Amino acid sequence: MEPSLRKRDRSTTKTQQEQAQSLSKKSSQIKGFRLKGSPSVRDWIPDNHSIILVDNFQSPKELAEFIKRLDKNDKEYLKYLEFKNKGISNQLLRHTVERRVWGVNDWRKPSFINAFECYLCERIVERVEAERAHERDPSIPLLPPRVADGNHAGCPEPSVSLGDMSGVGRGEDIHFWKEDYWSSKDQALALKRMSEQGATDSSKLFEELQRMFTEGALSK
Prior knowledge:
This protein is mainly α. The protein is built from nine helices and two strands. The radius of gyration is 26 Å and the shape is flat. The termini are far apart. Pathway: Protein modification; protein glycosylation.
């Protein structure tokens, strides 16, 4: 092979490698803001042009074509990253992040799970103290009831976005997510029944689960 041809071949190969690396890098970045999740996701995005919402597309093909067009148009692509320089315009998100007591990868703050457990305990103590104060002095009003529903912490059973579970391999994470979902739901049912029965020893939870399993009272 002539030197000029070898040089051109090396140059072509290098260009192809650079293009592949660029596409791979950009694709991974695009993946970072392509979302399929909670119906309330729009309430929590940094601004109105910071994510690609899967639900806005009629089919995977339409989504793929959009991503391909975006990959070829740097100007349009960079619009999705402008919030990183301009800041978060979503006031609900800003207000929530600034006021929350939990952190992410921050050893000085509790995780969101621990913080939520603390929140529940604080509200329970608040109610108990208010009831005791009302018993001593009926003129002190009781706190209004707080009843959670599916909009607070509800979550549907995990499922695949396309097709059904028959095409999902046994080692895929979604199988574990489903197990966690039903296990957590059963524990919630057991805790609810224990609470209604006036139980005060949470260490009896798994004994209650066993009784409910024997009775056929669990969710699945």
